[in-house]
Amino acid sequence: MDIKYPAEITFGTGRTEMKKLDLTSILFGIALYFMLLPITVTSAPASTIPVVKIGNLSWDQTEMTIADVKTFADATGFVSQAEKNGGGLSYEGGFVKKPGWTWKTPYGVPAKAAEPAVHLNQSEAALVCHFYGKRLPTDAEWTSAAFLEQRDDPPAAYSKGRRYPFPGGSTPETSHCLSGCGDYKGVAPAGALNRGTGHVLTSTTKPGVNGLLDMGGNVWEWTATERNGGFITRGASWWYGPERQKESDVESKAGEIAVVYIGFRCVS
């Protein structure tokens, strides 16, 4: 855009003054130039995880996947603390480091893209959510979505406005846990764990309250709520039976730990 300066000024005597710059006109022209430039709107990358609307929040229907963390890592150069440490943690009478166990290789071997992303600490989980224009849910948001049915026309097994004892509904049958839940088998290699079979792939269990998957069992989920010097995790995991999935079970973990049975999901 060309900015035109004021023309020469001629007085009644016929004498022509030198060109004078009108500062106000110049500044206006510059401002107009930048106002007319094309506006580039940058949007967050698209996640591959289906979204479920619950109240005024959009929830990832499943836990965060390895596939979506890979997209984040490829775009940002992200290296997790577990990778820097040489491996994440598992519980064997106390937390022990497992060499080579990271979000890429939860049990030390190549993993499938649809597996839940684990071995990420609370702040790393929040970073991944932020990359997709989302965030971690608060504990209050998590429990409301997990236990209170809010769909206008839910399936026959659910009733709008009812609060259920399990994220799966009246029973824990939809979930994957140590025992007493659904008939699922985790993907951990034989001998890799001293307890349980590990997590199952996302989208392979049955939907529960509000149509969400794995709010109970599979892997614990980080929240944004601080408690006792750490952060609340919800839903329990394949390590435990269904009793740990209940709303009354409030578990806090140190925000910096990265464990084989802790994952997360995002909201917006």
Q: In angstroms, what separates the terminal alpha carbons?
A: 40 Å
Structural class: alpha+beta
SS element count, helices: 5
What is the level-2 CATH architecture name of the largest domain? Alpha-Beta Complex
Strand content: 5-15%
CATH superfamily of the largest domain: paralog of FGE (formylglycine-generating enzyme)
CATH topology of the largest domain: paralog of FGE (formylglycine-generating enzyme)
Q: How many strands, what sense, and barrel or not for the largest sheet?
A: 4 strands, mixed
Radius of gyration, whole Å: 27 Å
Describe this structure in words.
There is one protein chain. The protein is an alpha+beta fold and 268 residues long. The protein has two domains: 1-41, no CATH class; 51-263, paralog of FGE (formylglycine-generating enzyme) (Alpha-Beta Complex), CATH 3.90.1580.10. Helix content is 18%, strand content 13%. It has five helices and eight strands, in the order αββααββααββββ. It has helices spanning 23-36, 66-76, 81-85, 122-131, 139-147, and strands at 51-54, 57-60, 87-91, 95-99, 220-227, 230-234, 251-253, 262-263. Strands 7-6-5-8 form a four-stranded mixed beta sheet. It has a two-stranded antiparallel ribbon with strand order 1-2. The chain is globular and about 45 Å long. Mean pLDDT is 90; it is low at 1-21.
Tags for this model:
13% strand, paralog of FGE (formylglycine-generating enzyme), globular, two-stranded antiparallel sheet, disordered N terminus, 268 residues, four-stranded mixed sheet, alpha+beta, 5 helices, 8 strands
